[in-house]
């Protein structure tokens, strides 16, 4: 239950309207499309690779932030 | 466009054109789809950054008396023509309204415009290498008369 409250609090803070951190997502999406469009030529492959890049970076950073947040609460 | 004229294209010209207008290097290389994609995304990122930062993010100098040079501008300048065109507007708004340096939205807007510059650098290098090294990405250079 404690862990659930921590995780819920983390995401509630992250996506609260007063917190501009969500603005990193459109930025990451544009970086993904431009970066992959310089590496690939077929539109389908660009879309797939950009989506993969966006998901990897976003979810990876979220997971890392959550781990650090929990560690900071334990210290 | 004949094969000979494709070979005669200069990679350096693609680099310079790509700086003047994002995506123009790819248009010069005959890749209009990518040119439109890069121009739209990089310009949108610049404009979005300017809007998010309330118009005060593309600054050569801080607007105060004797304001110091902003290192961010070096990154923003990589976006070329659109960044240069937006600089006086941003400098005017910053001088008129002042800049809230502690505002997180100002920081985010600055980041957007700087990333737009870095992305254009990547796009310029891509346009250069596509002409200089046509065999890259598995593309075959067109044969004479093909």
Describe the structure.
- The complex is a heterodimer of chains A (about 80) and B (about 150).
- By secondary structure, chain A is mainly alpha-helical.
- Chain A contains three helices and no strands.
- Chain A has a domain at about 25-75.
- In chain A, helix 2 crosses helix 3.
- The longest helix of chain A has about 30 residues, at about 45-75.
- Chain B has one domain.
- Chain B has seven helices and no strands.
- The longest helix of chain B is centred in the C-terminal third of the chain and has 29 residues, at about 105-130.
- Chain B is elongated.
- The interface of A and B includes residues 23, 27, 35 and 37 of A.
Measured by residues with Cβ under 8 Å of the partner chain's Cβ, the largest interface is: A-B, 15 and 22 residues
Total strand count of chain B, please?
A: 0
Average pLDDT metric of chain A = 87
- Mean pLDDT of chain B comes to 84
Give the H and E element order of chain A: HHH
Q: Give the distance, in angstroms, between the N- and C-terminal Cα atoms of chain A.
A: 19 Å
Count of runs of 4 or more consecutive helical residues of chain A: 3
The ordered H/E elements of chain B are: HHHHHHH
Q: First CA to last CA of chain B: what distance?
A: 11 Å
Query: Which stretches of chain B of 5+ consecutive residues score pLDDT under 50?
Result: 140-146
- Helix content, binned percent of chain A: over 70%
Which outline of chain B best applies? Answer: elongated
Give the C-alpha Rg of chain B. 18 Å
Q: Which structural class do the helices and strands of chain B define?
A: mainly alpha
Q: What global shape of chain A is seen?
A: elongated
Count of spatially separate domains of chain B:
1
Sheet with most strands of chain B: none
Q: How many runs of DSSP E, i.e. beta strands of chain A?
A: 0
* Percentage of residues in helical conformation of chain B: 55-70%
Q: Whole-number radius of gyration of chain A?
A: 16 Å
Strand percentage of chain B lies at under 5%
């Amino acid at each position: 239950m404690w862990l659930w409250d921590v995780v819920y609090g983390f995401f509630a803070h992250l996506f609260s309207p007063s917190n501009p951190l969500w603005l990193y997502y459109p930025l990451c999406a544009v970086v993904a499309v431009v970066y992959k469009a310089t590496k690939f030529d077929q539109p389908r492959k660009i879309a797939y690779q950009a989506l993969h890049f966006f998901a990897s970076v976003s979810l990876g950073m979220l997971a890392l932030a959550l781990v650090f947040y929990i560690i900071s609460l334990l210290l | 466009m004949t094969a000979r004229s494709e070979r005669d294209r200069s990679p350096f010209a693609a680099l310079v054109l790509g700086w003047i207008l994002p995506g123009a290097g790819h248009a010069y290389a005959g890749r209009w789809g990518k040119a439109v994609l890069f121009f739209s995304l990089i310009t949108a990122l610049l404009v979005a950054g300017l809007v998010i930062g309330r118009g005060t993010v593309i600054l050569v100098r801080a607007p105060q008396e004797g304001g110091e040079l902003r290192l961010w501008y070096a990154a923003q300048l990589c976006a070329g023509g659109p960044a240069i065109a937006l600089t006086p507007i941003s400098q005017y708004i910053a001088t008129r309204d002042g800049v809230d340096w502690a505002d997180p939205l100002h920081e985010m807007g600055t980041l957007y415009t700087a990333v737009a510059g870095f992305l254009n650098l990547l796009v310029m290098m891509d346009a250069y290498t596509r002409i200089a090294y046509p065999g890259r990405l598995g593309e075959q250079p067109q044969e004479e008369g093909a």
